Amino acid sequence: MSEIYCENLCITYSQKEILHNLNIKIRKNKITALVGSNGSGKSTLLKTIARIVMPSSGSVYLDGKSIHRYSSQEVAKILAILPQSPEAPQEFTVERLVQYGRFPRQSFFGSLSPKDYKAIDWALEVTDMQDLRKKRLSDLSGGQKQRAWIAMALAQEGEYLFLDEPTTYLDMRHQIEVLNILENLNRTQKKTIVMVVHDINHAAKIADHIIAIKNGRILTEGNTKQILDEKIIEDIFGVKGLIISNRIDNTPLFFPLEVSYV
Protein backbone atom coordinates (compact mmCIF):
# COMPACT_ATOMS: atom_id res chain seq x y z
CA MET A 1 0.00 0.00 0.00
CA SER A 2 1.17 3.51 -0.81
CA GLU A 3 2.46 5.73 2.00
CA ILE A 4 1.63 9.42 2.41
CA TYR A 5 3.40 11.78 4.78
CA CYS A 6 4.23 15.48 5.12
CA GLU A 7 7.48 17.13 6.17
CA ASN A 8 7.86 20.77 7.28
CA LEU A 9 4.69 21.70 5.42
CA CYS A 10 3.91 25.43 5.17
CA ILE A 11 1.15 27.29 3.30
CA THR A 12 1.08 31.06 2.85
CA TYR A 13 -1.70 33.10 1.21
CA SER A 14 -1.14 36.81 0.51
CA GLN A 15 1.76 36.87 2.99
CA LYS A 16 -0.46 35.31 5.67
CA GLU A 17 0.71 31.98 7.04
CA ILE A 18 -2.09 29.40 7.02
CA LEU A 19 -0.10 26.28 7.92
CA HIS A 20 3.23 26.26 9.71
CA ASN A 21 5.86 23.52 9.68
CA LEU A 22 3.54 20.50 9.87
CA ASN A 23 4.90 16.96 10.03
CA ILE A 24 2.22 14.33 9.57
CA LYS A 25 2.13 10.67 8.63
CA ILE A 26 -1.17 9.25 7.43
CA ARG A 27 -1.85 5.99 9.20
CA LYS A 28 -2.60 3.18 6.78
CA ASN A 29 -5.93 1.35 7.07
CA LYS A 30 -7.03 3.79 9.78
CA ILE A 31 -9.48 6.68 10.07
CA THR A 32 -7.77 9.99 10.79
CA ALA A 33 -9.88 13.01 11.79
CA LEU A 34 -8.61 16.58 11.42
CA VAL A 35 -10.35 18.80 13.97
CA GLY A 36 -10.14 22.47 14.89
CA SER A 37 -12.12 25.68 14.99
CA ASN A 38 -13.15 27.53 11.83
CA GLY A 39 -10.13 29.07 10.10
CA SER A 40 -7.65 26.81 11.85
CA GLY A 41 -6.30 25.46 8.55
CA LYS A 42 -7.67 21.93 8.61
CA SER A 43 -9.39 22.09 5.20
CA THR A 44 -6.30 23.68 3.66
CA LEU A 45 -4.23 20.86 5.11
CA LEU A 46 -6.53 18.23 3.59
CA LYS A 47 -6.36 19.89 0.15
CA THR A 48 -2.58 20.19 0.37
CA ILE A 49 -2.11 16.53 1.22
CA ALA A 50 -4.42 15.66 -1.68
CA ARG A 51 -2.30 17.69 -4.14
CA ILE A 52 -4.95 20.36 -4.76
CA VAL A 53 -2.95 23.12 -3.04
CA MET A 54 0.78 23.64 -3.61
CA PRO A 55 2.76 24.16 -0.38
CA SER A 56 4.82 27.32 0.05
CA SER A 57 7.57 25.17 1.50
CA GLY A 58 7.98 21.63 2.72
CA SER A 59 6.54 18.65 0.90
CA VAL A 60 3.86 16.01 0.78
CA TYR A 61 5.37 12.66 -0.11
CA LEU A 62 3.75 9.70 -1.82
CA ASP A 63 5.94 6.61 -1.55
CA GLY A 64 8.97 8.78 -0.84
CA LYS A 65 8.49 11.10 -3.84
CA SER A 66 6.89 14.55 -3.83
CA ILE A 67 3.21 14.13 -4.66
CA HIS A 68 3.51 17.03 -7.12
CA ARG A 69 5.89 14.96 -9.25
CA TYR A 70 3.05 12.58 -10.07
CA SER A 71 0.44 13.33 -12.72
CA SER A 72 -3.11 14.13 -11.63
CA GLN A 73 -4.26 10.82 -13.08
CA GLU A 74 -1.62 8.86 -11.15
CA VAL A 75 -2.66 10.51 -7.88
CA ALA A 76 -6.36 9.97 -8.63
CA LYS A 77 -5.72 6.23 -8.85
CA ILE A 78 -4.40 6.28 -5.28
CA LEU A 79 -6.60 8.81 -3.51
CA ALA A 80 -10.03 10.34 -3.95
CA ILE A 81 -11.09 13.60 -2.33
CA LEU A 82 -14.64 14.71 -1.66
CA PRO A 83 -14.77 18.48 -1.02
CA GLN A 84 -17.40 20.39 0.89
CA SER A 85 -20.63 20.99 -1.05
CA PRO A 86 -19.61 19.30 -4.34
CA GLU A 87 -21.73 20.21 -7.37
CA ALA A 88 -22.96 18.42 -10.46
CA PRO A 89 -25.85 19.03 -12.88
CA GLN A 90 -29.04 18.16 -11.02
CA GLU A 91 -30.39 16.20 -13.99
CA PHE A 92 -27.57 13.68 -13.58
CA THR A 93 -28.65 10.28 -12.34
CA VAL A 94 -26.81 8.72 -9.43
CA GLU A 95 -25.32 6.14 -11.78
CA ARG A 96 -24.02 8.78 -14.18
CA LEU A 97 -22.40 10.69 -11.32
CA VAL A 98 -20.69 7.56 -10.01
CA GLN A 99 -19.41 6.74 -13.50
CA TYR A 100 -17.28 9.87 -13.36
CA GLY A 101 -15.30 8.21 -10.59
CA ARG A 102 -13.92 5.81 -13.19
CA PHE A 103 -12.38 8.59 -15.29
CA PRO A 104 -8.79 8.14 -13.96
CA ARG A 105 -8.92 4.44 -14.90
CA GLN A 106 -10.65 4.61 -18.27
CA SER A 107 -8.98 3.83 -21.56
CA PHE A 108 -7.97 6.50 -24.05
CA PHE A 109 -11.29 6.01 -25.87
CA GLY A 110 -13.23 6.68 -22.66
CA SER A 111 -15.63 3.73 -22.88
CA LEU A 112 -16.63 1.87 -19.75
CA SER A 113 -15.31 -1.67 -19.47
CA PRO A 114 -16.82 -4.61 -17.54
CA LYS A 115 -14.27 -3.83 -14.80
CA ASP A 116 -15.56 -0.25 -14.65
CA TYR A 117 -19.16 -1.40 -14.30
CA LYS A 118 -18.15 -3.83 -11.58
CA ALA A 119 -16.47 -1.01 -9.61
CA ILE A 120 -19.53 1.21 -10.08
CA ASP A 121 -21.87 -1.54 -8.86
CA TRP A 122 -19.64 -2.13 -5.83
CA ALA A 123 -19.54 1.58 -4.95
CA LEU A 124 -23.33 1.83 -5.18
CA GLU A 125 -23.75 -1.30 -3.08
CA VAL A 126 -21.50 -0.29 -0.18
CA THR A 127 -23.17 3.14 0.02
CA ASP A 128 -26.64 1.56 -0.14
CA MET A 129 -27.49 3.45 -3.35
CA GLN A 130 -28.25 0.51 -5.67
CA ASP A 131 -32.01 1.10 -5.58
CA LEU A 132 -31.50 4.81 -6.31
CA ARG A 133 -29.06 4.47 -9.20
CA LYS A 134 -31.58 5.74 -11.78
CA LYS A 135 -32.77 8.65 -9.62
CA ARG A 136 -31.80 12.18 -10.58
CA LEU A 137 -29.74 14.15 -8.09
CA SER A 138 -32.54 16.71 -7.89
CA ASP A 139 -34.84 14.02 -6.48
CA LEU A 140 -32.52 12.98 -3.64
CA SER A 141 -32.42 14.06 -0.02
CA GLY A 142 -29.27 15.69 1.34
CA GLY A 143 -28.11 12.45 2.89
CA GLN A 144 -28.73 10.49 -0.29
CA LYS A 145 -26.79 13.04 -2.33
CA GLN A 146 -23.84 12.76 0.04
CA ARG A 147 -23.90 8.97 -0.27
CA ALA A 148 -23.97 9.33 -4.06
CA TRP A 149 -20.87 11.54 -3.95
CA ILE A 150 -19.11 9.09 -1.64
CA ALA A 151 -19.97 6.33 -4.12
CA MET A 152 -18.40 8.38 -6.92
CA ALA A 153 -15.20 8.78 -4.88
CA LEU A 154 -15.16 5.06 -4.07
CA ALA A 155 -15.54 4.16 -7.75
CA GLN A 156 -12.01 5.50 -8.26
CA GLU A 157 -10.81 2.46 -6.26
CA GLY A 158 -8.12 4.49 -4.54
CA GLU A 159 -6.43 3.35 -1.38
CA TYR A 160 -7.22 6.64 0.35
CA LEU A 161 -10.49 8.50 0.77
CA PHE A 162 -10.27 12.17 1.81
CA LEU A 163 -13.42 14.01 2.89
CA ASP A 164 -13.94 17.64 3.91
CA GLU A 165 -16.68 17.82 6.56
CA PRO A 166 -18.81 15.02 5.04
CA THR A 167 -21.70 15.51 7.49
CA THR A 168 -22.08 19.29 7.11
CA TYR A 169 -25.67 20.43 6.36
CA LEU A 170 -27.08 16.98 7.09
CA ASP A 171 -29.66 16.25 9.77
CA MET A 172 -28.82 13.93 12.65
CA ARG A 173 -30.06 10.75 10.99
CA HIS A 174 -28.18 11.33 7.76
CA GLN A 175 -25.03 12.31 9.66
CA ILE A 176 -25.08 8.94 11.41
CA GLU A 177 -25.75 7.13 8.12
CA VAL A 178 -22.70 8.73 6.51
CA LEU A 179 -20.47 8.05 9.53
CA ASN A 180 -21.59 4.42 9.60
CA ILE A 181 -20.77 4.01 5.90
CA LEU A 182 -17.28 5.44 6.42
CA GLU A 183 -16.66 3.28 9.48
CA ASN A 184 -17.82 0.18 7.62
CA LEU A 185 -15.58 0.99 4.65
CA ASN A 186 -12.61 1.20 6.96
CA ARG A 187 -13.39 -1.88 9.00
CA THR A 188 -14.40 -4.21 6.16
CA GLN A 189 -12.50 -2.82 3.14
CA LYS A 190 -9.45 -1.47 5.03
CA LYS A 191 -9.97 1.88 3.33
CA THR A 192 -7.66 4.57 4.71
CA ILE A 193 -9.83 7.59 5.47
CA VAL A 194 -8.76 11.15 6.28
CA MET A 195 -11.54 13.59 7.04
CA VAL A 196 -12.06 17.09 8.30
CA VAL A 197 -14.64 16.88 11.08
CA HIS A 198 -16.71 19.74 12.45
CA ASP A 199 -18.09 17.81 15.44
CA ILE A 200 -15.56 16.47 17.95
CA ASN A 201 -18.03 13.74 18.96
CA HIS A 202 -18.21 12.53 15.36
CA ALA A 203 -14.43 12.23 15.39
CA ALA A 204 -14.63 10.37 18.70
CA LYS A 205 -17.21 7.98 17.26
CA ILE A 206 -15.20 6.57 14.37
CA ALA A 207 -11.64 7.93 14.25
CA ASP A 208 -8.61 5.87 15.24
CA HIS A 209 -6.41 8.95 15.29
CA ILE A 210 -7.31 12.61 15.81
CA ILE A 211 -5.10 15.55 14.81
CA ALA A 212 -6.05 18.89 16.37
CA ILE A 213 -5.11 21.98 14.35
CA LYS A 214 -4.98 25.47 15.88
CA ASN A 215 -3.76 28.59 14.08
CA GLY A 216 -2.14 26.47 11.38
CA ARG A 217 -0.14 24.31 13.78
CA ILE A 218 -0.64 20.87 15.28
CA LEU A 219 -1.82 21.52 18.81
CA THR A 220 -1.93 17.84 19.73
CA GLU A 221 -2.75 14.43 18.30
CA GLY A 222 -3.69 11.02 19.63
CA ASN A 223 -6.51 8.55 20.00
CA THR A 224 -10.01 9.42 21.19
CA LYS A 225 -9.31 8.96 24.89
CA GLN A 226 -6.19 11.10 24.66
CA ILE A 227 -7.88 13.98 22.80
CA LEU A 228 -11.27 14.01 24.54
CA ASP A 229 -10.04 15.90 27.55
CA GLU A 230 -11.82 18.99 28.89
CA LYS A 231 -8.68 21.15 28.91
CA ILE A 232 -7.52 19.99 25.47
CA ILE A 233 -10.93 20.66 23.90
CA GLU A 234 -11.05 24.10 25.51
CA ASP A 235 -7.63 24.81 23.98
CA ILE A 236 -8.78 23.58 20.55
CA PHE A 237 -12.25 25.13 20.30
CA GLY A 238 -12.45 27.75 23.05
CA VAL A 239 -15.38 25.94 24.64
CA LYS A 240 -15.72 24.69 28.21
CA GLY A 241 -17.58 21.48 28.84
CA LEU A 242 -17.69 18.08 30.45
CA ILE A 243 -16.43 14.71 29.32
CA ILE A 244 -19.15 12.13 29.83
CA SER A 245 -19.16 8.41 29.17
CA ASN A 246 -21.21 6.71 26.48
CA ARG A 247 -23.08 4.13 28.53
CA ILE A 248 -23.18 1.68 25.62
CA ASP A 249 -19.44 1.23 25.10
CA ASN A 250 -17.90 3.60 27.70
CA THR A 251 -16.30 5.79 25.02
CA PRO A 252 -15.92 9.47 25.97
CA LEU A 253 -18.21 12.21 24.66
CA PHE A 254 -17.92 15.97 25.02
CA PHE A 255 -20.87 17.95 26.42
CA PRO A 256 -20.39 21.69 25.75
CA LEU A 257 -21.35 24.19 28.45
CA GLU A 258 -20.04 27.66 27.67
CA VAL A 259 -17.64 29.69 25.58
CA SER A 260 -14.20 30.16 27.06
CA TYR A 261 -12.79 33.71 26.83
CA VAL A 262 -9.35 32.88 28.23
TrEMBL record:
One of its GO terms (cellular component) is plasma membrane. One of its GO terms (molecular function) is ATP hydrolysis activity. GO terms for biological process: iron ion transport. Keywords: ATP-binding, Cell membrane, Ion transport, Iron, Iron transport, Membrane, Nucleotide-binding, Transport. Pfam families: ABC_tran (PF00005). Its main location: membrane. It is a peripheral membrane protein. Residues 4-240 form the ABC transporter domain. It is found in: Cell membrane. It comes from the Bacteria. PANTHER family: IRON(3+)-HYDROXAMATE IMPORT ATP-BINDING PROTEIN FHUC (PTHR42771). This is ABC transporter ATP-binding protein. It comes from Fluviispira sanaruensis.
